[in-house]
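Glycosyltransferase
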Amino acid sequence: MATQKCFRVLVFPWLAHGHISPFLELARKLIEKGNFFIYFCSTPINLISIKKKLSGDDHQNYTKSIQLVEHNLPTLPQLPPHYHTTDGLPPNLNPTLRKAFEMSKLSFPNTLNTLKPDLLICDDLFQWPEIVASSHGVPVVRFQTCSVTAASFLAHIFTNPDVTYPFPAIYLHEYETDQIRRCVDAVFESGREESRNLLVVNTSKAIEEKYFYYYSLLRGNTKIMPVGPLIQQAPNGDEDMKVIEWLDKKDPCSTVFVSFGSEYFMQKEEVEEMAHGLELSNVNFIWVFRAPVGAEKVKLPLGFVERVGGRGIVMEGWAPQARILGHSSIGGFVSHCGWNSVLETINFGVPIIGMPMKFEQPMNARLLSELGVCVEIVGDETRRFGREEVGNVIREVVGGKIGDDLRRKVKELGAKIKEKQEEEMDDVLDELVQICNKKKRTVVHHHHHH
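Tokens:
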């Protein structure tokens, strides 16, 4: 790239880790490949963990080109500052957090006037940052952290509720429809006006090209460009060596990793079924277990830990997911199919055992099944899953012939993605530079008139 003026970009994700991570990776890519200075904007509680993430990789010198910017939410009685994040937030407070975020738009002009960015990259989940920025003459690019498939499915339900979605591979089970309805309501509640601004998505055409065109159509012929997969770099911490040493002693592809992301907390009954399923599978496992901040601990079944002995590890809270997925002993990932986890798993060539829990995860799981890289654990009308299904599917994938097929396909898919990746990213960077340059030119014009 020819030397260009340094552009100042304000980056503003939704307050969820699943959004912050890809936004942070996008910021790193901009710094690495172009001449950009990044203002990264989030709530103080989120900035603490973002700071940690950045200091973990100072060898790249990113910190010189990223400045963290506080975005303060109004103080609501039931939402103290440590709840200004979805991480560990009790699920019933989700709507309150969204409301507080919506209310915080009053302080956003202040941020724009202080920083005077050349560009705002904001989260496609909310429209107000885009509206405020546009009224202040700041160009906007929207960034979407979920798949095009899932987003087009939701947009379809919103626009054509009585028409079947045109791609039969993507459908819902009976027990998923209510929750998807709520998802659609949450995303489209503010009666979205489609804007003409570029939409970049954390995906690759190698994964879901056939869904791009329909999605663009549904979004008012918006220009949509893939920029992914943006995957968090694995930190080189030593604090997680125990689990890695444990994995070193296991056979290749012999172990299943179980994790449902940072925003899903299992009910008591689900914990029971999952535990018994792992026990029945007779497969080595690492199970990451989370509860909301301040919530009562959900207990594992009596004697479970003793019975599984040396073939299972239960980790509370956080696990080094990238280190684990990249380990040769891992033979499958029981995943909620959150999009970041999906991209990471494909990157490491690990077969996926799908257990979508909420949000847009069901559509991701169906897409992965269509691609031949995932087997879903499907329950019946009464519940999402039971121990028998869990045990059987894990056994078939880890160490079974099905697992070999999935692994071959997921490695092929990973290779296809890597082929396209550089080119897709460069196209987006060129586009961003053009948008910033346009702004610079219009600003210059104004000065002629004075």
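The CA atoms of residues 216 and 222 lie 5 Å apart.
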